[in-house]
Known about the structure:
- This protein has helices spanning 38-44, 130-134, 137-150, 167-179, 191-199, 213-221, 236-242, 264-269, 282-295, 310-318; strands spanning 2-8, 11-16, 26-35, 55-56, 60-68, 79-82, 85-86, 100-101, 113-117, 121-123, 158-161, 183-188, 204-207, 224-229, 243-251, 273-276, 301-306, 325-329.
- By secondary structure, it is of the alpha/beta class.
- The chain folds into 2 domains: 2-136 and 299-329, Alpha-Beta Complex (Quinone Oxidoreductase, Chain A, domain 1), CATH 3.90.180.10; 141-276, 3-Layer(aba) Sandwich (Rossmann fold).
- α3 (137-150) crosses α4 (167-179) and α3 crosses α9 (282-295).
- The longest helix is centred in the middle third of the chain and has 14 residues, at 137-150.
- The two termini are 15 Å apart.
Amino acid sequence: MKAIVLDAPHRLVLESLDAGQLPSGWARVRMLTAALNHRDKWIVEGKYAKIRYPSVLGSDGCGIVVEVNADDRRLLGTRVVINPNQHWGSDPRAQSAEYTILGMPSPGTFAEYLDVPLDRLHPAPAHLSDEEAASLPVTGLTAYRAVFVQGQLDPSDTVLITGIGGGVALMALQFVRAATNATVAVTSGAEWKLRRSLELGATCGVLYTAESWWEELRRSIGGFDMCIEGTCGEPFNHLLALARPAARIVVYGATLGKVPNLDVHRLFWKQLRIIGSTMGSDDDFRSMLEFVERHRIAPIVDSVIPFDQFDRAFERLRNREQFGKIVLRISTE
């Protein structure tokens, strides 16, 4: 089978690999589509813990179950999405020490075939295309836990979502909009992404590149009750200034790095809660799929790129040109 292999730092190659023997209790999935995540880019750049070479990356995917090594063969022939969680553990509050995500260190979805335990497979929502289904697992799970489990979205909330255009931020916007009529403000570094977000239901948006962007948000919405935040860095203190008393700031990423000179005075005086959120439990994944199916939510697909042109996909991700998910089309059968 063909697979995209990371065989050295900064080097991805398309190689032929032996699919091997299917373990007991596992299924073999013929991959139709796979979606990129920033995690894949960071692994390629060597900015991830415990990287192994060679490795097949990819945490998101949609495919057809073509072989099952188990008595229960109900999923055989089914179009599925793959739960990327591995070994979350028994505590719903946080993942175990053994927790990993599909695609590093275990082989991922950037391959023509992928072997996974049967309990990682779920029928793909019928209303989604192959490309949309591949875009759902990581961003859908991360956004669902951030909005509903950690953030405890309330219909009366005014919500701020930072970095709109990324997959998690867009899914968070769609989830909030499906669940409530809440006021939702967004930030982005591109005017065209703000316009697209308004079409998806955002109430207002500001460029975080603008001077005093937080003052513009204050004039527009007056403050927020919950923020879904994936950037951190220096702007984080402005979120504390914008937060209403008892607001929740749910942090699922830190693309801008550490927060310098954290404004702890606002943090304690406003009784704010900063809540970490990473991926989600298996129960969260099942709940997310049910929510998506009930509300017929479709992830935003930025572009679909042929499997053997994966370098174009990574270049688009590196240049931050995307609005939604970049998807590799692996099989057309």
